[in-house]
TrEMBL record:
InterPro entries the UniProt entry points to: MSEP-CTERM, PID_CTERM, VIT
Keywords: Membrane, Transmembrane, Transmembrane helix
Domain VIT, first and last residues per copy: 463-595
PROSITE patterns reported for this sequence: VIT
NCBIfam families: MSEP-CTERM (TIGR04286), PID_CTERM (NF046080)
Bilayer-crossing regions: 9-32, 44-64, 71-94, 114-135, 147-167, 179-204, 216-237, 257-273, 285-306, 312-331, 351-372
Name of the featured protein: MSEP-CTERM sorting domain-containing protein
């Protein structure tokens, strides 16, 4: 204990946490400072100055004491207690002024008050421990006086509280009474902890007498009984009627049996008598050091709640359970010190310290290894489902994934304030940082992964119907106008489209305007403006998920702030959202389009023509500088040769269950094969469950299906994508007609559309479902793929298509539809997303070509996402991975920048919020919350103290 008086501890206990606290608060301040009134800015500056003075003063004092080779004394402790208590009082009483109600909560995901309490409490606790060490010499001290004084503090609170309740102190002397009560609360709380820890320390250092007799009662009580009792009370096993339904835990979710097992094992190891045999004592040291991480974790978790222990003792009578982790910490550290002292004469200092350090790293390393395994398992599953390598076969550990998904769901609920709920303090933060990159996994993806790999079914699943028109009372497009000019330098049109939207009636208010419109090939969105007040606010080109998150959070405020969002919904469909449209006030927004040829734009039923016939027609292919991407106008495409390919059935057989499938499928397939495709060739077969196994030509699909294990669910999305991938990568004289054979088509995991794969199906944009009634139902590949089409034709004669560049040596086939098209000159060749061109339009052609290439090579998403986004930002051209977002104030823009940094550092397949039909989740705008883990670093070093 005397070792804690060494000044070098201050760098770990005080300087480190204060640096983290300052950095986290500065990060919050940089986002919200533009929204703060002058008095709040002054408070932030004073708080920052106070932290700076405290940190620099303490570090300077520690340096001076080190040079003098002097220990910390009572004066240091009293000054530190006074300063830290004053800062915490300032944080508590000025919380409403520091973060005014005008600041949206989503911009402050971590309460500065909670951060301050978490990171200043180690300094306060250390100051109290220094006082205990200063006034309790080794081997001296009486237990009973300290114990009585400690118990007297709660009793004094009860008596003084009753007395003050009888007298009108707050009426006669309001300010004096408030100050005196605050001072009394602080001093009595510090005194309570001083005498309580002093009692524990005296008991822990006794070697005979009281310790050999009734002292064991204290050790069993603190090390074994009270930890188990505290876990039971926290989880509601005990006193649930008194505390109410706590939903997971008062201070966190510690309901896992492992917490009880570790608590019992830790208590037994600390209560066992020290073995006189050095070898067994060394084993005891290893076990006690290995479980010290458990003790340290709960000490750090409960450190900010220590001031609540006295009220909890008075109200519930169980406040001593809050104190248990700190008392256990004192006992555990003292025991490790005794083990070190006893073993060093036998084994030497180095070996004993090696055993100690090795034991201390057991739990942290095991936890990190477990979380890292969860990360690898999850990311492999996400890559397989959402960014697969279609050219490779993959198999995953479904059991490990199921465990990981369960852990993710457990950690998913975010804590609110001091109520941790199902959140595990610090562990959930560490898990979210290491496994989820500080983002989240949406319920939709969680359900997909469980269905795909574990065969679970969605309850009451129904295919989503096509969207209907907006209700009559929604904001409507009033006017649609445009101006176009031809840029001879880049040989393209520059058009500005102006939209005016308003409510249909003046009394309506606070609505969102949404619309979608199609753009032709060779047309890029290159700028965006939203009129806010009397100014035109230019949209910021940002990463798509970060922009959508910020927009959703602003809408969730319902505070009539003004964002506008422009993004791609699929390859050529653009979505526009403007909020709010209030009363009769019209909202104005502008969109700039770069396009190679004139075209007709249709928005909400209104049409206008962009460009005119003054520019020369585009009769020849236009290529990028490296000739990797081509733009073919309708005229240029019409000059390509016409060819007619031969179709073949590609049956996708649902192999997710094995109840008589070969026999059931055979009748349906044979009946369908009797209706031969004109000029058709032999059919192909793929077995589909969690994986897709395409059988070689001529294989016996019945025998293969009977042997196929039932891996997981029916992952139809992956199967269709792989068929389209092969068709696009290896264009030939035949093309697939996809037919899905399943007992439960609605239970399949099926994407909403395959619009981005359109270059792979030039002949037809439908696939078919062959149901148990032997009906052949058509489904669209372009939109709402789960919903059968009412009027789609059955498979028939193959339509003619255009072959590029020649019919003899084709590298791509194009639909003969009188529309312009983008073509990859070498479909199998890799594209570089960071390439540049001589004009913005050609740069847009490069970006659009890379987007098409990336659809068929999603395994490159994480590796090439950042260069692709940077190229999009430099050119100022919208892509499927970016969005234009117009914001009202600088705080929103700062929040967008912070969120974008977070999303770009994470796995591209993770989410920032739930689906659009669910309330947005307030995930942090920075990863700073993870720094709270460093609050325990200072305390961890206490285990390494030497006599």
């Amino acid at each position: 204990m005397q070792n804690l008086r060494k000044p070098q501890w201050l760098f770990m206990i005080n300087t480190g946490p204060l640096v983290v606290l300052f950095a986290m608060c500065y990060g919050i301040y940089t986002v919200i400072h533009s929204l703060l009134p002058p008095e709040s800015v002054v408070l932030w500056q004073r708080f920052g100055a106070g932290l700076g003075l405290l940190g620099l003063g303490t570090a300077g004092f520690a340096a001076v004491q080190l040079r003098r080779e002097q220990l910390l004394g009572a004066v240091y402790s009293l000054v530190q207690i006074g300063v830290c208590s004053g800062l915490l009082a300032l944080v508590v009483f000025q919380s409403d002024s520091t973060i005014p109600r005008s600041v949206p909560p989503w911009m402050v995901p971590t309460d500065p008050g909670l951060i301050a309490w978490t990171l200043l409490m180690p300094t306060l606790a250390h100051a109290v421990l220094v006082l205990v060490a200063r006034f309790t010499p080794e081997g001296e001290g009486r237990v009973l006086p300290s114990l009585l004084l400690a118990l007297g503090v709660p009793l004094g609170w009860w008596m003084v509280g009753g007395l003050l309740g009888l007298l009108p102190w707050d009426y006669l002397f309001p300010h004096i009474a408030e100050a005196l009560l605050l001072l009394a609360a602080v001093m009595s709380t510090i005194s309570f902890f001083f005498f309580l820890i002093r009692t524990a320390y005296i008991l822990a250092q006794k070697k005979g007498g009281f310790w050999a007799g009734s002292g064991w009662v204290f050790r069993v009580l603190v090390a074994l009984v009270m930890p188990l009792l505290g876990l039971a009370v926290n989880s509601g096993v005990l006193l649930n009627d008194v505390l109410g339904n706590i939903g997971g835990g008062i201070f966190g979710d510690f309901s896992s049996p492992w917490f009880y097992i570790l608590a019992a094992l830790n208590g037994v190891l600390l209560c066992l008598p020290d073995s006189p045999r050095p070898a067994l004592r060394l084993v005891q040291l290893l076990g006690r050091a290995g479980l010290f991480g458990f003790t340290l974790y709960f000490a750090v978790v409960f450190l900010p709640f220590l001031p609540l222990s006295i009220p909890a003792i008075l109200v519930f009578g169980v406040g001593f359970l809050i104190l248990t982790p700190v008392l256990l910490f004192v006992v555990h550290v003292r025991q490790l010190g005794d083990d070190l002292a006893a073993l060093q004469p036998h084994y030497g200092r180095r070996l004993v310290l090696a055993v100690l350090v090795g034991g201390l790293t057991v739990l942290p390393l095991y936890l990190t290894a477990s979380y890292w395994h969860d990360r690898r398992t999850l990311h492999e599953a996400l890559d397989y489902v959402y960014s697969p390598n279609y050219a490779q076969a993959t198999r995953l550990d479904a059991n490990a994934l199921q465990t990981t998904l369960g852990t993710i769901r457990q950690h998913k609920e975010r804590r609110r304030g001091m109520d941790f709920g199902r959140h595990q303090p610090y562990l959930s933060t560490y898990f979210n940082w290491l496994v989820l990159d500080n983002l989240m996994l949406s319920e939709s993806k969680l359900a997909d992964l469980q269905v795909i790999f574990n065969g679970q079914s969605r309850p009451d699943y129904q295919p989503a119907p096509p969207p209907t028109q907006q209700p009559a009372d929604a904001p409507q497009l009033r006017t649609l106008t445009a101006t176009s000019s031809y840029d001879a330098r880049q040989q393209s049109w520059v058009s500005w489209v102006d939209l005016t939207v308003a409510n249909p009636q003046a009394g309506f208010g606070d609505w969102e305007y949404t619309t979608k419109f199609q753009l032709p090939a060779g047309c890029w969105v290159s700028d965006y403006y939203l009129t806010i007040g009397q100014r035109q606010e230019r949209g910021i080109l940002a990463e798509k998920k970060a922009a959508a998150w910020v927009y959703a959070q602003i809408l969730n405020e319902r505070a009539s702030r003004d964002p506008g969002l422009l993004s791609y919904d699929n390859t050529r469909e653009v979505s526009l959202r403007v909020y709010p449209v209030i009363g009769a006030e019209p909202r104005h927004t502008r969109i700039q389009l770069l396009h190679k040829e004139p075209f007709e734009l249709s928005v909400d039923g209104q049409k206008l023509t962009l460009g005119n016939a003054s520019a020369p027609p585009v009769a020849a292919p236009v290529t990028t500088p490296d000739s990797s991407v081509l733009y073919l106008s309708a005229t240029a495409k019409s000059r390509l040769p016409l060819v007619q390919r031969r179709p073949y059935y590609h049956f996708l057989l649902d192999a997710s269950t094995q109840r008589g499938l070969p026999t059931a499928y055979a009748a349906r397939i044979n009946n369908q094969l009797t209706q031969k495709l004109p000029n058709g060739v032999a059919p192909r077969y793929s077995l589909v469950n969690a994986y897709t196994t395409t059988l070689p030509a001529g294989a016996d699909w019945r025998a293969e299906l009977a042997r196929e294990p039932a891996h997981g669910g029916f992952f139809l999305t992956g199967a269709i994508q792989r068929v389209l991938f092969e068709a696009q990568q290896h264009p030939g004289p035949t093309y697939p007609v996809i037919v899905v054979v399943s007992e439960h088509f609605t239970g399949a995991v099926l994407a909403d559309n395959f619009e981005s794969f359109q270059s792979a199906y030039p002949e037809s944009d439908v696939f078919y479902e062959l149901n148990p009634e032997q009906q052949l139902l058509a489904h669209s590949l372009r939109a709402h793929s789960a919903v059968p089409l009412a009027d789609a034709p059955r498979p028939g004669p193959a339509p003619v298509v255009r072959a590029w560049p020649t019919a003899a040596q084709p590298r791509a086939y194009l639909a003969d539809n009188q529309q312009a098209e983008l073509v990859l000159s070498h479909p199998q060749a890799s594209l570089q997303p960071a390439a540049t061109a001589s004009s913005r339009w050609l740069t847009g052609l490069l970006l659009s070509g890379y987007s098409q290439w990336q659809t068929f090579h999603p395994e490159s998403t994480d590796r090439q996402r950042l260069p692709f986004l940077q190229a999009s930002f430099r050119a100022g051209i919208l892509t499927p991975f970016t969005s234009f977002l117009a914001l009202e104030n600088d705080a929103q823009k700062a929040a967008l920048r912070r969120k974008q940094e977070e999303t770009l550092a994470a796995n591209a397949n993770l989410d920032v919020m739930e689906e659009d039909d669910l309330p947005p989740v307030e995930t942090p705008i920075d990863g700073g919350v993870g720094l709270l883990l460093l609050a325990g670093v200072g305390l961890a070093g206490w285990a390494l103290r030497r006599r």
